Amino acid sequence: MASGDSRLRVQTEDGITRVEFVDRNILDEANIQAIGEELAQIIDNSTNLKLIISFANVSHLSSAALGQLISVNNRVRAKEGQLRLSDIAPQIYEVFAITKLNKIFDIQETAQDAVESFS
Hints:
CATH architecture: 2-Layer Sandwich
CATH topology: Transcription Regulator spoIIAA
Radius of gyration: 13 Å
CATH superfamily: STAS domain
């Protein structure tokens, strides 16, 4: 899965899967599709999923990327997993707030806060 053209860095530790984006700008439709497929694969291959998606490296996010995140969230919930978003820059968080997605997602300040928030 972690092929050379992966758009994600994935690390699993203590039953928690942490995902970071390779790209600073998540705007390209093809990349967003690839990210969605990679995340779907992670979710589908997991049981008792605890997933953190870190936006530490991300400067820009398109609306298509937000749509992909909603799909990921629905997929995680369908498998009764837990999803946390972390390390979101203020300008990106503003988009989550404007679109009310901050009410849908469990957003934590840091990846460490996200780890500690799992039940």
